[in-house]
Amino acid sequence: MHVEHSRVFDDQKVIHSLSKTTKHLENLKWNVGYVAFKLLINESFYPNRIIHFDFKGAPPKISYLKEVLRLIKRSGATGILLEWEDTFPFNGILADNRNSDAYTVEEVHDLLKTAKSLKLEVIPLVPTFGHLEWILKVERFRQYRQNDMFPQVICLADNDGVSIVLEAIRQVVQFHLPFGIKYFHIGADEAFQFGECLKDRQWLEANKGQEKDSLAAMHLAKVSNYVKTLIPNVRVLAWHDMIKSFESKLIDQYRLDQLLEIVVWDYSETLQQQNDFTWHSLAAKFPVVWGSSAYKGANEPSSEFLDLEHYFRNNKAWITHRNIYGSLFRTFRGLIITGWQRYDHFAVLCELLPVGLPSAILNLLVAKAGDKFSTESIISATSAALNCTSKISMEYMNSFDSCNFPGVELFTAIRSLRDYIKAIKNEVFESHQVKGWLSRFNVRHGYTQLWYLMELENNIEMYTQEMLNMAKMIESLMEPIFRRHTIDEWLYEYVDPTIERLMELSQQISQLKMRRTFTVRNFDIRRRMHYAL
């Protein structure tokens, strides 16, 4: 496979492949689409258009991130949401929980300085309720879990445990503050259990008549007030899913409507969790709301490639709901377009940032257009923003091969890998020959028709070599963007299983080829286990 030279990222420039640059100069007419698009925008529809970066998996090198920031700024982003998790350069009590590939102080400073120079609002996100696996997974902090089996939710009534969360906030705030913090996100989603740990149960026993939600409301108020003591005039954001069911009297008791701005997240194509009742119910409790869509990482937990049409439909659905229900609130603050890298701390990697970048740009342009968008103008504008030499299509992802954006070579290679693995599954793993003459029965009992396997053997050798070449190519394309651990993890999850299966089939054929005589039927089947009936 022909591969053009990958980009080299630095502070000054990006070295593009010569052929792509030449084609771009010859096709500047595509920029006309962007000019026309400028006449069809409504930037007041979403005053804040925020792109989310999830660093709890595959944290990119700062040099690459800086290129991405420049691109999203040009495409209409007003800010970024940074979810550092264990990649922040924590010290003190949290130092041992820091990722071995955590960013250095100098790298974080460089990124924040770049964002400030681009006039991008930076919103730090520190989980404070659920999704605390990065803290609670270790023995030292195990005692602060809600449930010993699940290191996800902090014991809310345990002041020592909560103080660790507050310390994480303090360190992140201290670093971000010189660059300005207008908004701070405290997470608070998907806390699947609380009120279960000993101190929570003791609190509920001592406060007769109080429900579990009172514990959660008390905790969120405590965290929000702490953030406000650190940052004058800050607005505190929180995901809506754990808060939406709180009774109005509980919200009033803890002043949550004054302390928090609620972020409603829904990544489905029809916003299936939101309806007339949920919007009116939320508007009766909270005067300010944000929406949250997705550009990647919210379709399947193990997606190696992008389903662009899914995310486009999701962002279109948000425009519909914003149109219908936005006026229920005093302020609809904006849209956070999320790009998850893992579903949670323990999950596998999903779409890498270079793979999701076209979706981020396309859906940023959707948000910028607001209620004035049209699909045709969005496609033209995205083609221009990504420096494409021909018009892109959401249906045909190979149309993005003509584009020239940061990481496009890796995007193209992973798309090709996906298609190649599909071909291998169809032509080898699910083939007539493997299913009929190389099944577990055939292999275990040495019983097969070699004629069919000889026909298959050459194909397996060819596919194995092609996969090895593709793995080497993808590895080289990842190196300018990611660190070694990310590269190894991604290849292990998405490339190695196919290579290993091909090699296993090859070895099985080699063993079966040695057979010249076969047992007369019937014979004992060598079952490894017997099931009790």
From TrEMBL:
Keywords: Hydrolase. The keyword Hydrolase applies. Its EC number is 3.2.1.52. It holds the Pfam family Glyco_hydro_20. InterPro entries: GH, Glyco_hydro_20_cat, HEXDC-like. It is an enzyme of class 3 (hydrolase). Gene3D superfamilies: Glycosidases. It catalyses: Hydrolysis of terminal non-reducing N-acetyl-D-hexosamine residues in N-acetyl-beta-D-hexosaminides. Residues 97-269 form the Glycoside hydrolase family 20 catalytic domain. One of its GO terms (molecular function) is beta-N-acetylhexosaminidase activity. GO terms for biological process: carbohydrate metabolic process. Belongs to the glycosyl hydrolase 20 family. PANTHER family: BCDNA.GH04120 (PTHR21040), BETA-N-ACETYLHEXOSAMINIDASE (PTHR21040:SF4). This is beta-N-acetylhexosaminidase. It comes from Onchocerca ochengi.
